[in-house]
Amino acid sequence: MELNLTIKARLKFSDPKDALAFQEVCEQYRQACNYVSDYVFNHDFELNSVKLNEVLYHDVRQRFHLKSQLTQSTFRTVTARYKTVQTQLCRNSNKYDSGKKDGDGKPVYITVQKDLNWLWHPIQFSQPQADLVRNRDWSIVDNGKTFSINTLKGRVKCGFFLKGFEEYLDGTWAFGLAKLVKSGKHWFLHISVKKEIAEMELTDIKHVVGIDRGLRQLVTTYDEKDQTAFYNGNAVLKKRGHYKELRRSLQARNTRNSKRRIRKMESRENRWMADVNHCLSKTLVSLYGSDTVFVLEDLIGVRFATEQVAKAQRYEQVSWAFFQFGQMLTYKAKKVGSMVVEVSAAYTSQRCPKCGTIKKSNRDKHHHEYHCPCGYRSNDDRVGAMNIQQLGTQYVSGVAHPKFEKQQANS
Ligand SMILES: [Zn+2]
Question: Is residue 405 part of a domain?
């Protein structure tokens, strides 16, 4: 199995002229991408980078003074961006009410598949950037202390800040494409790295850990030894509340300065939430170690109504934070030879983990308690984690898509 990730290094310059050389190459690259994008837009969305190379190579090279490898990279950058947009359009296809009704009297909708023809303008590349091929456009020199990066004026050597970079130099990681980008005042190199790791065998599992995500308890875990742990979300809720207040007062002012401060605050909030997720996933992975199956609910269909998340914006923030936690846990688990599986969220908060009865009213949301007529009584977050853990156990025993089904009530 291949583990892929992107690591981000902030570059530091000994000579300010070096930054100018980056600016220049990135600007030329950006303009070249827009030129190629225009061509793609006007030629039936030709997304074959080999064909684009045949037609445009000399033209782009001469116009934008790019070296051979960078010229070829523009074709890949542009086609990749169009393909991403294509996927997004397809996902957001329009639904129209046909005005007709089906047998049950429900309206019949017509789905109109969206494709690239829905674009009104060629995709624009507005940020200066350059996609660099390893050993052609960029390389690591000086025992891993310096990057050497190709510009229009030749190679530029620069140092960088990247915590834990040594880890990637142990010979097990392969370096790939790197993106040179400017963000704020600083220049960054976003480097793709990959590593071959052994796929976890489902035969030698040490732990199966069910994880319930929420707001009050950020994470509740339940494992095969009946151990429950709560990772409290109060600090997060409090901080969210603080940011929300701040946003409201800034929005009320509605000046250019207040808008800028909102943007700054939002990126601070995102960084802080990423940090919380990072710590949480790290704690869980180091607690259980290798050969662990972490079980999460898939986020499709997870609703937060019970947690009083009223605003759509807040819903998005929460689901983004949950998604990010899943991503981080997956990556960290893989690194130590463990895995994350996603199971269906259906009925995990309504089912009694002892007798299997599914009943919504067994859960008392106000007192955060689950109470089943069979006599079982527990904290509701814990019940969620227990049910998720049970689905994980089903997965381990060979059920590909474990899911709770509501039995038809006969009595
Ligand atoms: Zn029960």
Answer: no
